[in-house]
Write a structure and sequence with these properties.
The structure holds two protein chains of two kinds. Chain A has 38 helices and 16 strands. By secondary structure, chain A is of the alpha+beta class. Among the domains of chain A are: 148 residues, no CATH class; 124 residues, Immunoglobulin-like (Sandwich), CATH 2.60.40; 115 residues, 2-Layer Sandwich (TATA-Binding Protein). In chain A, the strands form four sheets. In chain A, strands 4-5-6-9-8 form a five-stranded antiparallel beta sheet. Chain A has a five-stranded antiparallel beta sheet with strand order 12-14-15-16-13, sandwiched between helices. Chain A has a four-stranded mixed beta sheet with strand order 3-11-10-7. Chain B is of the alpha+beta class. Chain B has two domains: 131 residues, Beta-Lactamase, CATH 3.30.450.60; 38 residues. In chain B, 54% of the residues lie in helices and 21% in strands. In chain B, the strands form two sheets. Chain B has a five-stranded antiparallel beta sheet with strand order 2-1-5-4-3, sandwiched between helices. In chain B, strands 6-7 form a two-stranded antiparallel ribbon. In chain B, helix 2 crosses helix 4 and helix 4 crosses helix 5. The N and C termini of chain B lie far apart (68 Å). The chains are: A alpha+beta, B alpha+beta. At the A-B interface, helix 1, helix 3, helix 5, helix 7 and helix 9 of A face strand 2, helix 1, strand 3, helix 2 and helix 4 of B.
């Protein structure tokens, strides 16, 4: 179109621009819309030129944000015009205004099909552009084969090939199942060797998408890509035209470096690995002399392109993580960039450092830049850069640096951008917990965090603080003291009130001797905050009241008085009302044992795994699998390892047993000693249940896998084994389907034969992939030695019992353990528990009626092990004595341990 | 991939918007607004990259932008793109426009929206970099222009032809009566 063309359009645009106000503009737009609508409605029909003009106007209005409700049909008609100008306009309209769901898409697809087979290269291009802009599932099913043919056909010109590659990419993203590219794989990879840089660039994009979905299939492209890369950066044999500011084909270099990051290090053939290192070295050595004496603008561009390649090369070596020299060199280079005068470079250097910090070989080298990074955090004027600096600090933190790092992050938190505060809070909490040396420091940090950034503190954070305090005895009095002091401030944040309320309720007694924090004062402080907080916090504070009343009789009457007010007893909030009523009755009850028992100190939290990391992960589920970059993926991998580290960290009084990073089912497992059916493992997307039955030395388990998520679980495989004693059980687990669709439950049969006695429950290892993440669950199966106990066939009388008892004799066949009961002893319940353990009790044998005696036989293939048990409860002392005698010493120990852990 | 390419002026008036993933009209306007708010306040010496959340559904976008005189060129990309690469791509785009319109200014973009779209299409396709060689891009654009020119000359002839034909037809019908 020359400038003379479409004069009406120019006038219209000029009018719009001249409009003085929004109203005037709207008026002009509406007038034009009415005009066009009338023209389109005209039966006489418009010439192609007129249609084109009006469609162009509609596009302009759409750009300004005005709704365009008509003209679609007219635009789509232009697609089949014989005039290129009209066709072009029609496609432009379709690309801007239509989408796969539109009613007219059918017609568009027909036009695309026609144009794809056109002999005119320009028409083919238009159709390919349209596919890559708006193509979807339906388009894919209609045109995928045509596009494929254009991509690999020898006679396709390069311009068509490169566009076909990107159109293919769109179709693959939208409807991977429609794109049967597998058979063309070698030919697509072959395109990487094309002499046309444009074709190679597009193909590299396509291969990146294909390979990230299915790396194994495209492994062979590694060698080809390396070869190409080597020729570009070293031989500089690229087409002259693609030299951009004296750097050969920088975009392609970056693309290829990214493609390589999808694959592991190419150890074989050796020339590949050598070439990769050479390429990386070249990219890392940004040579200065080339550009001396040129204008600044050119120099800046030159550096830009060079650095694009350099940063990508760093990502690649961080991904390989197998060359300490290169990685350390990269880190040194990055150190120089931290003080670069361009903000862009400082930003990217920080980003690369945070990737480098997750690697094995360069982690230490990154730490050397700690002070520069801290300086960036403090003095950068751009919040985007500061945020990156915070990321690096998070990644390089270790137990030596933690105090400094946490301190700097806390300072940064005060003036950080609001959008990043929640993430920052999580990170500080995780670091403080992971590298804690002194728990009073931890408490200080966390309380400072909550006080300063209360609004951004996710509930998980303060839950976790409480868990840690409850699990660490040595810090409880300090925590109580600091919490009390914090609460003295009437304007303290609600999250602080929550923590303070809980901690004082549990550990307020530890500071009660100090006259400044006497029980009465503690109560006053909590009462002061009560009116200002939300219902859920109030409920927590009510519990604190009653806990304090339990510990300090002197304030009991006062608490009762408070609770009895109608504000509580008739509170509109059901939860508060219920708590108040229950607590009032509890405090008034005559039974003196009940209150302390109910209000006893909370036991340590068993879950050593922190939810904070999960929270952090959901906070930045940034990466869709298909486009996921290496850097991001690296970060995720790093996180997976961290998850393991933290779960193994020794916060809880009980050291964590697991050494691996797999998920276990310990919290679900304990109950199974006494029952046969139940939930083996559960999380929001997966539930695994089990039913089991045992006869003699044989057991049969049915395991149910339920997918509660909304995506299928794939690659499901299972393996069962007995840790430490692989031959003690023979386990036959039937195979199950590799895929569990969402909302479906699958069953698996597992048959077990007890060959000989064993102490550790067998483990069922379930590996699966969910939404691209591989998970390994190591589930203990509910198969313990006591499951194979069967009662004696004939009942036993007292003399026979004692005869046997004496026959078996004392240690080593006898194991005696005395334990403090975990729950108050009720004789009937004790009796039931022993029976459900597998040993039926026999009455009238033991002279003391409350004692229980039992006999049974453990069935194993190798031997039948006679087992006798005597249980002597002492209700006053809340103690139980278990005496087990079995015909095999080891079996006595195992049975005794099983018993003890369940009473 | 590149999720969207936006050009707007210092007052936030859109001059070009191109979305590579489906968004409805309202969402498009929202994205333009949010991008304008995000970049317009930034001083010139800060970095050209910016992280945003919730710009698109995927929750993973970076804005990479350049500011030329009265116009902002903003590319919204996901994490699979190299920041500096995109920054250079903006430069290529602008230099190409500059060659095409001979010292491009805001008015050129306003009055030739369609042409700008066609040029952009030769550089970025479906959110991926298609061509970075300016000479190649311009030669494609020139090819299209040639096609249009040849059409418009033959178009006039066709018009004449059809007028003549309708005359003949009308004569014929008159004879029939």
């Amino acid at each position: 179109m020359g400038k003379e063309d479409m004069r009406g359009l120019s006038h219209f645009i000029a009018d719009i621009r001249a409009s003085k106000s929004k109203e005037a503009e709207l008026k002009r737009i509406n007038k034009e819309l009415a005009n066009i609508r009338a023209k389109f409605g005209d039966k006489k029909g418009l010439t192609g030129y007129q249609k084109k003009k009006y469609v162009c106007k509609l596009i302009f209005m759409f750009l300004l944000g005005h709704e365009v409700e008509f003209g679609h049909m007219e635009a789509v008609n232009l697609l089949s015009s014989l005039h290129y100008s009209e066709k072009q306009m029609g496609y432009l309209f379709a690309s801007v205004m239509l989408n796969e769901q539109h009613d007219l898409m059918r017609l568009v697809i027909q036009a695309i099909k026609t144009d794809l087979s056109s002999r005119n290269e320009l028409n083919v291009s238009l159709a390919l552009h349209c596919i890559s802009n708006i193509g979807g599932k339906e388009t894919a099913s209609e045109v995928a084969t045509l596009v494929q043919r254009l991509l690999v056909a020898d006679e396709s010109p390069n311009t068509v090939k490169k566009k076909a590659a990107l159109a293919m990419l769109r179709l693959f993203r939208e409807a991977p199942e429609q794109v049967a590219i597998a058979e063309y794989t070698p030919r697509v990879i072959q395109l990487l060797t094309s002499p046309d840089t444009g074709v190679v660039t597009s193909t590299a994009s396509l291969l990146t998408a294909l390979a990230s979905a299915n790396p194994d299939e495209y492994r062979s492209c590694v060698a080809v890509a390396i070869n190409k890369l080597h020729r570009i950066v070293l031989a500089r044999s690229e087409q002259e035209d693609y030299i951009y500011y004296s750097v050969p084909a920088p975009w392609l270099t970056v693309k290829l470096l990214r493609l390589l990051q999808l694959f592991p290090f190419p150890g074989q053939p050796t020339c590949c690995s050598r070439h990769v290192y050479v390429c990386v070295c070249v990219c890392l050595s940004v040579c200065l002399p080339v550009c001396d004496g040129r204008p600044t603008r050119v120099r800046i561009q030159y550096f830009n392109v060079n650095h694009a390649c350099m940063f990508e090369a760093m990502n690649l070596i961080a991904h390989y993580d197998n060359n300490a020299d290169l990685q350390i060199k990269a880190c040194t280079l990055l150190g120089d960039f931290l003080i670069h005068k361009e903000t862009n470079m400082r930003f990217l250097a920080l980003e690369s450092l945070s990737v480098m910090a997750t690697t094995e070989y360069s982690h230490e080298a990154v730490k050397r830049h700690k002070s520069s990074v801290i300086r960036a955090l403090k003095h950068e004027s751009d919040p985007t850069v500061q945020r990156r600096a915070a990321d690096v600090l998070y990644a390089l933190c270790d137990s030596e640096a933690v105090e400094r790092v946490v301190d700097e992050l806390l300072n940064f938190l005060d003036h950080a951008d609001y959008s990043v505060r929640e993430e920052l809070v999580l990170k500080i909490a995780i670091l403080a917990e992971r590298f804690v040396k002194d728990y009073s420091w931890y408490v200080d940090v966390m309380l400072r965090l909550i006080r300063r950034a209360g609004d951004h503190v996710a509930p998980e954070v303060w839950y976790r603080v409480i868990q840690v305090i409850v699990n660490r005895q040595d810090v409880q009095d300090y925590a109580a003291k600091t919490c009390f002091e914090a609460l003295l401030d009437p304007a303290v944040h609600e999250a602080m009130v929550n923590v303070g309320g809980y901690v004082l309720g549990e550990f307020g007694h530890l500071i009660a001797n100090d006259p400044n924090s006497s029980p009465v004062k503690q109560l006053e402080v909590i009462q002061m905050h009560y009116p200002m907080v939300s219902a859920s916090t109030r409920a927590l504070l009510l519990s604190t009241y009653v806990k304090l009343a339990n510990l300090f009789p002197e304030i009991k009457s006062h608490v009762l008085q408070v609770l009895k007010t109608s504000h509580f007893l008739k509170n509109a909030d059901a939860e508060l009302q219920q708590r108040a009523n229950e607590y009032v009755h509890l405090l008034q009850t005559s039974n003196t044992d009940v209150v302390p028992a109910v209000l006893e100190e909370m036991p340590p939290f068993s879950d050593a795994q922190t939810t904070l990391l999960q929270r952090l992960e959901t906070k930045r589920t940034t990466v869709t699998e298909k486009t996921g970059t290496l850097a991001a993926r690296k970060r995720q991998e790093g996180k997976k390892i961290e998850l393991g580290e933290v779960s193994a960290a020794a916060h809880s009084a009980v050291p964590a047993k697991s050494e691996t990073t797999v998920i276990n089912n310990d919290p679900f497992f304990d109950k199974f000693t006494l029952v046969n059916d139940g939930v083996l493992y559960e999380n929001p997307v997966l539930q695994i249940g089990v039913k089991s039955e045992f006869h003699g030395n044989l057991g049969r388990l049915t395991v149910f896998y339920g997918n509660r998520g909304d995506a299928p679980m794939t690659g499901v495989t299972t393996r069962a084994f007995v840790p430490n004693a692989p031959d003690a059980l023979s386990i036959d687990a039937r195979p199950i389907d590799a895929t569990i669709p969402p909302g479906v439950q699958l069953q698996q049969q597992i048959n077990v034969e007890c060959v000989t006695y064993f102490s550790d429950a067998p483990v069922l290892e379930v590996s699966l992939k969910y939404q691209g993440r591989a998970v390994v669950l190591a589930l203990k199966l509910p198969v313990m030695l006591n499951k194979f106990i069967e009662p004696l066939t004939a009942p036993m009388d007292a003399p026979t019992f004692f005869k046997k008892w004496n026959q078996l004799g004392g240690p080593p066949r006898e194991v005696r353990q005395i334990i403090k009961a975990k729950e108050p002893i009720v004789l009937d319940q004790l009796h039931e528990k022993v029976v459900s353990f597998g040993l039926p009790t026999m009455p009238d044998i033991d002279p003391k009626p409350q004692n229980l005696v039992c006999a049974g036989i453990i069935h194993t293939t190798n031997a039948q092990i006679g087992t006798l048990l005597r249980v002597e409860p002492n209700v006053e002392a809340q103690m139980i004595r278990f005496t087990v005698r079995a015909s095999v010493d080891a079996a006595s120990v195992i049975v005794s341990n099983l018993l003890v852990s369940n009473f | 991939m590149i999720q969207a390419i936006l050009i707007f002026n210092n007052h936030g008036k859109p001059r070009l918007s191109k979305f590579y993933q489906h968004c409805d009209e309202e969402q498009q306007q929202r994205v333009v607004r949010e991008c304008f708010q995000a970049v317009s306040k930034r001083p010139d010496h800060v970095c050209n990259f910016l992280e945003t959340s919730n710009l698109f559904k995927s929750n993973d976008s970076r804005l990479i932008y350049r500011h030329y005189a009265t116009l902002f060129f903003v590319f919204a990309v996901d994490s699979s793109e190299s920041e500096l690469g995109i920054l250079d791509l903006i430069q290529v785009f602008v230099e190409t426009l500059d060659r095409q319109f001979e010292n491009v200014c805001e008015l050129d973009l306003i009055f030739h929206v369609d042409k700008v779209h066609h040029i952009l299409d030769e550089i970025v396709m479906g959110g991926m970099v298609l061509e970075t060689n300016m000479g190649e891009v311009l030669s494609h654009v020139e090819e299209q222009a040639k096609m249009l020119r040849s059409e418009s000359s033959s178009f006039l002839q066709a018009m004449k032809g059809s007028k003549a034909a309708s005359k003949v037809k009308s004569i014929g019908s008159r004879l029939g009566h």
